[in-house]
Amino acid sequence: MSAGRTERMLRARFGLLVSLPRNDVEMARAALEAGADGLKVHIGLEHFASGLSTGSLDEEADAIAAICALGAPVGIVPGLGERQATRAEMLRLAEIGIDFFDLYAADMPAWMLAMDDCPMSVMVAFSATCRPWALVESLGARSRPDLIEASIMPHEVYGCGLTAADISEYAEIAYRAVQPVIVPTQKAIQPAEVGPLMDAGAAGVLIGAIVTGSEAATIAAATERFRSAIDGRA
User: Fold this and answer.
1) Degrees (nearest 5) of the Cα angle 55, 59, 65?
2) What's the domain range around 127?
3) Rounded Cα–Cα distance for residues 227 and 30 (Å)
4) Is the separation of the CB atoms in 85 and 93 below 8 Å?
5) Mean pLDDT (whole number) for 195-206
6) Which stretch of DSSP H or E encloses residue 123?
7) From CA 224, how far away is CA 3, in angstroms rounded?
8) Predicted TM-score of the model (pTM)
9) Spatial distance between the Cα atoms of 99 and 68, rounded to a whole number of angstroms
C-alpha cells in the first residue's frame, strides 16, 4: 500500500493536526484557515477530553464528507465496542475521503491491520497501559501500522503541564519507531513547547479540546498560535 497523504506530509515536515470536538464543517474550516495541515474526526464515541459524543456513520456521513471536501487530509476514530465501524463502513469511510483511521491497539480488531481492499492508512495509538512495541517493530510490512499516536497519558493528568519526563517518553517512542509519531495534547501543551517535541523526534502535534476549546473561534485561535510556533522553529 502506498503512503497516505498524512503519512507523506509527516515524513516531509513537522505537522499540525487538529482533532475536532464535533464533526462540524465550520470548525474544520476555521482550523484549516488558521494553519492546520490536517484534521481528525470521530464516530461512535464518547470523547473523554471534550465531554462530547458523536453519532454513527449514517448520522455523521454528510458532515464528514463536507469536512473531507475542504481538501486537507482527514483521519477518523471509527468508534469503539458495539459502535465501532464494520468492514463495510470502513470501506465507505475511504470512499468519503478519509485518509487514515486511528485506534488504541487494545481497541483495534486485528482484521483492521491488513485490509488490502481499503486505502486508508493505519494509525495505532499507544496508551498509558499498552505500548505495543512488537506491533510496530516486528510485524511484517503488510500488518505493520503506518502511523503512531503517542496517547500515553493517564486520564488523571489530562490538562496538566508538560514535563521533561513526558518529553523523554515521547523521545523513546520516536527513537524506536520507524513510523511517524504524533503527540496529542492530552496535557496542556503550549505552543512554546513545540521545540522540545521536535527535538524529541515527534513528527507532529495533534491539538484537541484541552488546548483548543470546543468552539470554532477558540479552535482557530489555538491553531494559529501553534502554526506560528511551528513555523518559527522550522
Assistant:
1) 110
2) 5-233
3) 13
4) yes
5) 98
6) strand 121-126
7) 28
8) 0.94
9) 9
